[in-house]
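Action item from last week, closing it out:
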Amino acid sequence: MGISRPAWPGDEGRANQGYPNKNHLQKGQAAAANGAFAATGALASADAFAAPGALSVSEALAYVKHNLEAINIQISGEVSELSDRPGYKAVYFTISDQSSALSCLIWKNVYDRLGVELKIGMQVEVGGRFTLYAAKGRMNFEVKTIKLSGEGELRVKVAQLARRLEAEGLMAPGRKRAVPRFCERIGLVTSPRGKAVHDVLRTLRRRWPLAKIELAGVAVEGNGAAEQMAQALACLEEAGCPVILLVRGGGSYEDLMPFNDERLARAIAASPAVIVTGIGHEPDTSIADLVADYRASTPTAAAERVSPEALDLKAALERESGHVAALLQQGVSQKRQQLLRISAHPLFGDPQYLLGSRMLALEHAQARLRLRSRELLRPLAQQLAREAGRLEALSPLSTLARGYALPFDGQRRLLRSVQAVAEDDRLSLLLADGSLDCRVERVLRGAEARGLRRGERDEGTVTKG
């Protein structure tokens, strides 16, 4: 725990007052040559006082309080204890080095304004002054400023970047995609010389030998490592890898800093492929882990996440096969029982079951229809008989049946007058039961015809042709 020692207020004119001056305070300190002193050597021993009489406790504490609180110094050390309880007006913590520890406090409003979140193990540089609570004789270092040093400063920058990316939604669970279960092609971004690449390849060969591995060897630490990894992701995306492993072995916080790079984080978030990270060991969490679709604790765990175990897959297929067979057997049994229930129905034992009542109803309907049709047709039949009688009376056939004949000339035209006939014309006479072909020998007109009708017969007048 180092202290930068400024000039002491009130040093001048204090040599002959019986109080410990600058020389007294530095007496016996190993760091006097370079202007610094250990926190445990705050005051010299009692023999340094040259006062004529002893001071009271209150006077001594008032003197120390007056001089200590006028000094503002910078102290560096590691946070070894921390107490930040809700409702308290101050945050209490202890900083220490290899041999000493110093109790510190910072008022809550100052702590919140500085925006630094203290954690045990952080290397910090605090600025402030010593305060003395005289009633208890208790001394603290009241902190006014906090500056993280070394890894602590890096952690603050990483935390700030993480909060910004989270506010943009890059770490939202809703944007993370599921890892494909059976990947035919797997991309791998890691160092080609590290232990992680061998662990991943060995795991993939053992668990899922069907997969084709596309390896992009890059630097995973140091300057330019983040840019190389972002470019490797783009190359594997163009190669058509649906899932990409981004892995490396363990290392210090500084070694893992490329995985906290903003460019790499945005490349992961924009990738069309599913990104699975396995960076460092279980406690190590980087921004790349938070942005990726899935974070595995180690490179081996990442490889296991994207590859099904062959034996597990075989067992799963056997289970599914047995399950399918059981379902089929159950389905067949259910259909058999259903068929038996259906076949036992009276419909299939008696054909009349379904149609008997309808056939009976149909017969009754037919009987009613016949009866009703007779009732409806009887007046029509009677009327038809009457009309038929009248037609029969007017029919030429009835006239022919009474002994009359119808004459037709050679053109089959009905003769209505003897004026249309001459001697030797060929005629046809239609009788009730046939026809006669005749030749006209003589035509009788007027009185002659009437005389013939009275019985005067002239033999040979008409001859049958």
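Closing note: Residues 2-51, 457-465 have pLDDT under 50 and may be disordered.
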